[in-house]
Structure formats: structure tokens, C-alpha cells
Amino acid sequence: MMALAGKRLCMGCGESLGGGLAGLVAALTAGVAGHPGVVCGEPLSRHTTWRVGGPAERFFRPAGVSDLAAYLRGLPASEPLFWLGGGSNLLVRDGGLRGSVICLRGALDHIESRGDGALYVEAGASCARVARMAAREGLGGVEFLAGIPGTLGGALAMNAGAFGGEIWPLVEQVETIDRRGVLRRRAAGDYQWGYREVTGPSGEWFVAATLRLPPHDAETAIDVRTLLERRNRTQPMELPSAGSVFRNPPGDHAGRLIEASGLKGCCIGAACVSERHANFIVNTGGATAAEIEALIERVEAVVAEQHGIRLVREVRIVGEGS
Ligand SMILES: Cc1cc2nc3c(=O)[nH]c(=O)nc-3n(C[C@H](O)[C@H](O)[C@H](O)COP(=O)(O)OP(=O)(O)OC[C@H]3O[C@@H](n4cnc5c(N)ncnc54)[C@H](O)[C@@H]3O)c2cc1C
To answer: Are 104 and 37 in contact, with CB atoms under 8 Å apart?
Structure first.
């Protein structure tokens, strides 16, 4: 770091991923490299549950919504943007991400009950906290979130779900921000959602949502302790992973197909198909993103060859190869 005209400048921002002098000059001109809270070259392996991923050219965790809007307003139009939650559904390649990575986890994480079953949740709040807060308020319907290790923003982007529940049917409205820092309030009806997919207005990201929840009903509610015990029994929780790598094909389970293809325990480097749950790829220690990606491709090829089914990825793969 060095001081320049009263601002903190991360040396190398714009250079680390080949942006070169032009990238550095663009960032400086826009003032983003000196924006408080920006870290240059932050290893994304610290922010993904697979514990892999190269550096973010600029890693920014906003102090609040207005800070986020100010940062976005300062960005050059050419700056690539990536939104990061808990990194629990992401494979970031070893060469990292160019441009700005906006991390809402540990920031924008306010949760507030607004009466009549309305829970206002900022996008960086963890799913587990949403489940706990709802329980404290006597509200139900979100027990399934207790075992999902991401943020509300990531859950909205993925339509996260488990044990028969999913997030979007509970959403009343969302607040979004665009790359010019403009905030909008949108009704849930502006979005279409299905199994682990959501489409809606492009060029906007979630900053908060209002969930409308029914009162807790002991008769029908999923028991959170049972749910977490079941996860611990059936999923390899002790090793870094990103949960299910593939979506379940209609009428079948990706894990069953992978196991039936003889791939349980198959490894490339330190990336292995879990022995406990074949739809999980685990980092057994020091795996690279390249190894994980190669194993994903091998699983796809073997399942297609043996069962004639093309598995669809649930995890998102982003970034530059090394
Ligand atoms: C052990 C384990 C178990 C899991 N079990 C489940 C499960 O039962 N059900 C399930 O659905 N998932 C499960 N997952 C996957 C993952 O937790 C979910 O997909 C989760 O919703 C991802 O949230 P995140 O905050 O980690 O998102 P990230 O992984 O950080 O990001 C995922 C995507 O969302 C986008 N995104 C993140 N924040 C925002 C935002 N604010 N606005 C717009 N886009 C955004 C990112 O750009 C990225 O494209 C599991 C993962 C693990 C590791």
C-alpha cells in the first residue's frame, strides 16, 4: 500500500491479473482502488467452502448500502463485477477473478421482524441466522435454511432449498442495486424461479428481501435438530465441499447415477468424489480448483457414457485458469 493524494492505494490492483497499467489507471481514475474496504489480491480460497480459488483483483466488503452504492458509482463501466455470498456454491478457478468482487457476507447482514410475519433480511445475512431469527419470532417455513451454509443473497440467486422447501415462495419483495449504484424495490412477481434457478431483471443484484412467513406450526414444521443430524449422517460435513455439484435429473438423483457409474472415491489430485455422498466432491487437503474442475468433467463424461444422461451443474464455475 502507499498513500496517494490522501487515498490508500493498493499497489498492483489492476496489474495482478494482467489488467496492466491500463487497469491500474482506470481503477485510480475512478477512485475505487483507494475506496476504504478494498483489498487487492485477496485470496478467494479464504471465502469459498471448497477452500480453493485464486485472488480477487479488488475485493470489497461494503460498510453499508450507501457505501456499496458509492463504490459502484465510482467504478469504470469496463470493470468486471462479481457478487460473492458465502462462496458455498462456487468453484473459483486458480487464476482468480478480474475486476471487483463484492462480498456481502459479514456486511449488510441486518435482520428485522416487521410484524405480521414479515422478516426483512439483508443479503449478507447467513441462512442459518434467518432460520434462527424466524424461530425466535415464532415464524415458520424457513427451517430448511438452517443447514444451508450460504447467505440470503446466494439463496435468492440459486433459489436454495432443502427437504421440500425453497426460498422464493416465501419472498414478498426484494431490494436490488445495479452497477451504477441505483437501488430498486421489486415484487417477487418480477422473478421466475424453478429448481435451483432464478431469472429476473438483468444487471441487478440483491441487497435485501422481505420474507412473508407463516406462524410456526409444530405439527408440520421440520425439526431443525433432526434435519442437521440427517445432514451430518448423509453428507461429508467434515471436509470442504460445495454441497451437491449437480442438479438431480427429473425423477432421479445425481448421486445415485454417479455411484452407479462406479465413481465413489474417484480422485484427481486431492479432489475426490465423496464416499458418503457421491454428488459431493470433497477437498481432501490442498486440492486445486483445476483438480476439482477436472473431476467434475470426468464425472460428467462417465455418467453420460454409462447412462446416457447429461448431468447439469448446480455449482457455478467462475474465474481465470492459472
Ligand atoms: C455442505 C453444503 C451443503 C449444501 N446444501 C444445500 C442445500 O441443501 N440446498 C441448496 O439449495 N444448496 C445447498 N448448498 C449450496 C449453497 O449453500 C447454496 O447454493 C447457497 O444458496 C449459496 O449461497 P452463497 O451465499 O454461498 O452463494 P455463493 O456461493 O457466494 O454464490 C452463488 C451464486 O449466487 C450469486 N450471488 C451471491 N450473492 C448474490 C447477491 N447478493 N445478489 C445476486 N447474486 C448473488 C453469486 O454471484 C453466484 O453466482 C450446500 C453447500 C454446502 C457447502
So the answer is: no
Question: What are the contacts of 82-85 at 24+ separation with CB within 8 A?
Answer: 82/56, 82/318, 83/153, 83/157, 83/205, 84/44, 84/47, 85/123, 85/124, 85/150, 85/151, 85/152, 85/153, 85/154, 85/155, 85/157
Residue of minimum CA distance from atom 15 in ligand 1: 89
Q: How many CB atoms lie within 10 A of CB 60?
A: 25
Active site residue 261: no
Q: Are 288 and 269 in contact (CB under 8 A)?
A: yes
Domains assigned to the chain: 2-103 (3.30.43.10), 111-212 (3.30.465.10), 236-318 (3.90.78.10)
- Calpha distance 172→79 (Å, rounded): 32
Contact between 15 and 21 under an 8 Å Cβ cutoff? The reply is yes
Our answer on whether the CB atom of 141 is closer than 6 Å to any ligand 1 atom is: no
Task: Give the distance (Å) from ligand 1 centre to CA of residue 132.
Answer: 18
- C-alpha to C-alpha distance for 118 and 212, rounded to whole angstroms: 5
Q: How confident is the model over 49-81, as pLDDT tens digits?
A: 999 999 999 999 999 999 999 999 999 999 999
Give the model's pLDDT for residue 58.
97
Q: Is 174 in the pocket of ligand 1 (CB under 6 A)?
A: no
The whole model's pTM is what?
0.92
Residue 64, CA distances (Å) to 39, 123, 124, 220, 221 in order? 17, 11, 11, 37, 34
314 is catalytic: yes
